[in-house]
Amino acid sequence: MRAALSGLTTRGRSFLAAGLAAALCSVLFGQRDILRVGVLLCALPLVSAAVVARTRYRLACTRTVVPGRVPAGQEASVIVTLENVSRLPSGLMLVEDNVPYALGNRPPRFVLDRVEPRGRRELSYPVRSDIRGRFAIGPLSIRLTDPFGMCELTRSFTSGDLLVVTPVVEQLPIVHLGGEWAGSGESRARSVSAAGEDDVATREYRHGDDLRRVHWRSTAKQGELMVRREEQPWQSRCTLLLDTRSIAHRGEGMKSSFEWAVSATASIGVHLSRRGYAVRLVIDTGATVASASHDPGFGIGQFEGALLDALAVVQPSGVETLRTAGEALRRGGGEGLVVAVLGTMQTDEAQHLARVRHGSTAAVCVLLDASTWSRGGARSRRADPTTFAGSSALLRRSGWRVLEATAGSTMAQLWPQADRSLSSVDLPATVGRSA
How far is CA 67 from CA 46, 76, 89, 165, 253, in A? Predict the structure, then answer.
């Protein structure tokens, strides 16, 4: 009853206050008729509160988000099914779903007048976010009220759902990159000539590796799980590096160079996984945030989902240099294909990454001229304009294929420059360079 009294509306509280005032006046002035009016005014909100408090609807709620993973800027539909599983009809209900502000300015609300026994009501509403991320939808709350509007009580379900808003993925043209296991791929030729088809070399364990391939002798020697590399000559591999350092990017919000880099990484990762590459995504901290399993049962669609889920929540880091990222690339073996999406770099950082590529390793770098995303911004610039050109030239001399990106560029325009048939001197001019 205490909860019901706390749910009295403004109207209910006004009636109760008026009733108490009338009862007090009747005592002071000896007017019995005013006392009857006061009792009636007090009884109406109290009876309404008691009725609402004793209401015991048995409702079931199911929610479906279609699709559960959507690119930024596109709509998804939320379908809520409310079922009355009791034998009594429901009264007037106000249904409200809890939605984050990023998905809509106002929470969706619906008024249900009456739901018959065993009846169903299906409610739907759209959600849309221009910001990538993982958003919780729900729980659903129901406000019960009496016919006179004297009392309202809110009851909530406990279950909720998730909507993952992923970076925008561009469709990239097919180019010859290298690192393929068949045809003229460099990694196959090098591996087979060096170790033959029965390659017994070991490497560190990666998420998804078959535990039956663990090499226990090497594990005991190294102090960490090591696996055999029998399948190395027969699988296309790519290590994808994303530079998330906050000091390497400029701009704010969705128009920043960081968001452009995240979208570019998603486009490249999805494109390569569909071409049959086993992709490993690492960030500048050295952490592996997504990786394709070497198990044939791990489908392409599963890896795309894991990659986009990881990129949906990635945030700028406070790391100062790319040295840890270079060590992470070396731990991957440096074989197959290496693709790096980088922001502003110092010359020593470019030299460190240049040494990652060795032999005939195929290496592609998407180098962002972050200064074109924000001129004279609040953040202090760590490098002058000549650093971008110097880093680009240094990586080219080391055998990297450098794709220079500026504000206004798109990955679909830049990606053809990654073709291995193009030499570093024949690459076209940067697309989208601002004046």
Answer: 46, 6, 33, 10, 25
